[in-house]
Amino acid sequence: MTALQRNNVRIHGQGPKVMLLAHGYGCDQNVWRHIAPAFETDYRLVLFDHVGAGQSDTTAYVRSKYSTLKGYANDVLEICRELDLKDAIFVGHSVSTMIGLLAAIAEPHRFERMIMVGPSPCYIDDGSYAGGFTRQDIEELLESLESNYLGWSSAITPVIMGNPDRPELAAELNNSFCRADPEIAKHFARVTFLSDNRADLPKLKARTLILQCAQDVIAPESVGRYLHGTLARSELRLMRATGHCPHLSAPEETIDAMRSFLAA
Q: Of all helices (H) and strands (E), which one includes residue 44?
């Protein structure tokens, strides 16, 4: 099986440069449907599903491989190699921002620029670092997920999405969570929320845009500012959009921010 088959790779657009879009936890490539059309004229868009999500091949899931984010980063690099991608634009949401970071550190010639939507290198508070959660918070979250995945999904998705005045957004996210393979999703959550990539940040050489939403419970502003202060070639864009998924809740603002960064 090729990586393109395993990860359900879909390619759109006719532009001379490549944009690779990576979805966050509990989602699939469909979350980019409001963003992708805006770039199809100028870019060749490569969309894919992480193993365990969307239409990926779940038989390819090996727990030991995906016990760290490097397993997912290796998948990204396999896709890049099969498509012979160089100097691409990597757009990642949430945990995929760090997956992209690891891929770009391993093979920097693959990525010219990085766009990080709601990134966090570490979700747990540590000394002066404010990740947004205590370790006890995370352990309780993972315990709840393990005991009742569907119940946890329905409770956490409104928190992730924000925008309580638009319940249809949380409903969409919850439906996406429910479509994921629950055993893989449980493990991926543990890998995600216990990951710590702070030491990797200085190794990234690509120019990077950090899209930081207001009232983002998962990746608060303190995290965005920490990333901006640590990544050598970064720009921080504080968005009017609220919650953790501006590509769904505020696609126009997200597109505008991306275009401004890519044009500079």
A: strand 43-47
